[in-house]
């Protein structure tokens, strides 16, 4: 099993004045101790369950490019980009820039988007779910076409590109891997089977069923189910001084037993750095062979 770090909050004791220094210390430590990937949410307001909307939230691709400059090995991506927030041609350029500037470490994490409050708050487009899913599929088609170097005009229902030029091209070959977030059984998991290199699901009793649905979509699409990386969101709490490490490893074994290959999540008290050190010393090596 691989372990990825998600950074879902930028509200730390040092406040905005130290946010850059704190973020640099966090990602430098995570990169050094062995996290396979580092992810940030593509949100503009803080989300329910984590804090009030007024809490600090960095724009995702600005943050990722900053993180790229403070890391050398971890893969980098959004968990996940709301497809409707950026025109697909611009999104492809943003992910390509991250890939080039990081030495080929970018992921395209993408989904239909759900946070109507922040979209309307900042005047961003936010169509009904059916249209958002249509736009998600067109965005995937456009990114893949641009990464192939195909400059044929794109004429979709929602997007029209006269000259989808992408220069420089990405360093990742054949393109930055694509992760689609969401467990919608009829449409989202079908898009995973058709376009993605990885899925991202919530852990829980429903997870094996979701993976079985994905397997069925792969059969219908003629896609190798085993070629898709199965990832799940998770929360890492090592406890004071590592007191909960054993429990955490047991939880990750449970996830692996359901078919999850990569656990991605926030680390409690991440700004203290010590929990990251514990993860690297005691947890990541213990689950590598799961």
- Average pLDDT reading: 97
How would you sum up the major sheet? 9 strands, parallel
Instruction: Name the poorly predicted regions.
Output: none
Q: Based on Cα principal axes, name the global outline.
A: globular
From N to C, what is the helix and strand string?
EHEHEEHEHHEEEHEHEHEH
Distance between the termini: 5 Å
Give the strand content. 15-25%
Structural class by helix and strand composition = alpha/beta
The helix content is 25-40%
In DSSP terms (H or I, runs of 4 or more residues), the helix count works out at: 9
Number of strands: 11
Which value, in Å, is the CA radius of gyration? 19 Å
Query: Strands of the largest sheet, in order across it?
Result: 3-2-1-11-10-9-8-5-4
Protein described:
- The chain is an alpha/beta fold.
- The protein has a nine-stranded parallel sheet. A two-stranded antiparallel sheet has the order 6-7.
- The longest helix has 20 residues, at 129-148.
- α1 runs parallel beside α9, α2 (60-68) packs parallel to α3 (88-101) and α6 packs across α7 (207-221).
- It is built from nine helices and eleven strands.
- α1 (19-33) links the parallel β1 and β2.
- It is globular, with a radius of gyration of 19 Å.
Blueprint (SSEs and pairs):
Elements (H helix, E strand, L loop, with lengths): L1 E6 L11 H15 L3 E4 L19 H9 L6 E4 L2 E2 L5 H14 L6 E4 L4 H6 L7 H20 L5 E2 L4 E2 L16 E4 L6 H8 L2 E4 L5 H15 L7 E8 L8 H13 L4 E6 L6 H14 L3
Parallel strand pairs: 1-2, 1-11, 2-3, 4-5, 5-8, 8-9, 9-10, 10-11
Antiparallel strand pairs: 6-7
Helix pairs in contact: 1-9, 2-3, 3-5, 6-7, 8-9
């Amino acid at each position: 099993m691989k372990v990825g770090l998600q950074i879902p909050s930028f509200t730390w004791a040092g406040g905005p004045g130290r946010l850059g220094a704190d973020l640099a210390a966090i990602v430098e430590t995570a990169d050094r101790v062995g996290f396979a990937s580092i992810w940030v949410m593509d949100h503009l307001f803080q989300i329910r369950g984590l804090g009030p909307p007024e809490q600090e939230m960095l724009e995702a691709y600005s943050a990722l490019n900053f993180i790229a400059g403070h890391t050398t090995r971890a893969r980098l991506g959004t968990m996940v980009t709301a497809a409707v927030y950026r025109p697909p041609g611009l999104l492809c350029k943003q992910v390509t820039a991250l890939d080039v500037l990081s030495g080929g470490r970018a992921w395209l994490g993408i989904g239909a988007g759900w946070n109507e409050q922040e979209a309307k708050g900042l005047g961003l487009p936010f169509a009904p779910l059916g249209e958002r899913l249509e736009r998600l599929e067109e965005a995937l088609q456009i990114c893949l076409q641009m990464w192939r170097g195909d400059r044929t005009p794109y004429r979709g229902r929602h997007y029209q590109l006269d000259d989808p030029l992408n220069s420089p091209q990405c360093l990742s070959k054949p393109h930055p891997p694509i992760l689609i977030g969401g467990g919608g059984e009829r449409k989202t998991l079908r898009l995973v089977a058709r376009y993605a290199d990885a899925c991202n699901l919530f852990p829980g009793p429903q997870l094996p069923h979701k993976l079985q649905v994905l397997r069925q979509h792969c059969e219908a699409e003629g896609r190798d189910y085993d070629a898709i990386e199965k990832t799940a969101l998770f929360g890492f709490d090592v406890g004071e001084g590592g007191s909960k490490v054993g429990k955490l490893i047991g939880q990750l074994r449970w996830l692996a037993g359901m078919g999850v290959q990569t656990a991605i999540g926030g680390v409690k008290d991440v700004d203290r750095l010590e929990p990251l050190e514990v993860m690297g010393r005691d947890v990541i090596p213990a689950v590598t062979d799961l």
